[in-house]
Amino acid sequence: MNQNKKRSKSIEKHPIVAIVGCIHGDELIGKRVMEELKRIKLKKGKLITIIGNKKALRMKRRFVDQDLNRSFPGRSDGNYEQRLACDLKENLCGADFVIDIHSTVTDVKDLVIITKVNSEILDLLNFFAPRRVALMTPDIGEKALTYYCKAGISLEYGKDKNMTVQRKVFRDIMIMLAKLDMIDYKFKKNSYKPEFYKIEGVIKKQKGFNLNDEVKNFKFVKKGALIASNKRKSEQAKKNFYPILFGKKSYQDIYGFAAKKVEKF
Ligand SMILES: [Zn+2]
């Protein structure tokens, strides 16, 4: 039996799914979803729930020493988050599928982020019910947890304290567990066609410039269109792109990411 067949047979018999929340200590949505998940009864397999950064969560901070989701693969002799990254990687390397739950301060909704493409990830996307998927490779993004898992995805479904967002995250995880035959759960099939994006770069912030209100997440921006301006100067798009995770308050040095739409990965 080849490696792939062996893998899918073992997943069929005993799937191991890990849910990770609070990689960022100021994002509580993962913790709340995990509390709901703890109540479900499994028919088979294993469902692991892990709080990513307990100390930052207790301190009500995003991180202690440095952003955990930029700290992988970690260092055993490093600072708090670098050591934590090492431990998390160890704990999660045995899981078939890893779902890493985040929230965003931008108006992005229903976005799944992947950091690499392989057959395991494509399997996971088949089991999951994503509305939009964006590929953010480590050369553009950060050294994120999912890059070091067998098959991992991050969810950016919306704002942290929004109940609709929480319900959607919970529902999509339930659909996934049902498709893996780990639970009994009836769900309606999605009516939309998933959208796929490949992130190609960032759009840097210029001091004193205001982001144009017309630039909206997932809304096509044509080359030459106004991106930002101050009283005297303006900045135009150097090429066509789709904005992703764009917002005035999204990041310190960038407005967000520039992506192109693709048919599939
Ligand atoms: Zn986050």
Task: Spell out the key features of this protein.
265 residues; alpha/beta; Aminopeptidase; nine-stranded mixed β-sheet; three-stranded antiparallel β-sheet; 6 helices; globular; binds zinc ion
Low-confidence segments: none
Radius of gyration: 19 Å
Question: Quick one: CATH superfamily of the largest domain?
Answer: Zn peptidases
Order of helices and strands: HEHEHHEEHEEHEEEEEE
CATH architecture call of the largest domain: 3-Layer(aba) Sandwich
Largest sheet entry? 9 strands, mixed
Task: Estimate the helix proportion, in percent.
Answer: 10-25%
Could you say which small molecules are bound to this protein?
zinc ion
- Nearest-integer average pLDDT: 94
Fraction of residues in β-strands? 15-25%
Distance between the termini: 27 Å
Strand order of the largest sheet: 2-1-3-6-4-5-7-12-11
Count of strand segments: 12
**Which fold name is given in CATH as the topology of the largest domain?**
Aminopeptidase
CATH class of the largest domain: Alpha Beta
**Structural class of the secondary elements?**
alpha/beta
- Shape summary: globular
Description:
With 265 residues, this protein is an alpha/beta fold. It has 2 domains: 3-179, Aminopeptidase (3-Layer(aba) Sandwich), CATH 3.40.630; 199-262. It has helices spanning 3-13, 29-37, 54-58, 80-92, 119-127, 163-179; strands at residues 16-21, 46-51, 97-102, 111-114, 132-135, 152-156, 195-204, 210-211, 226-229, 234-236, 242-244, 254-262. The two termini are 27 Å apart.
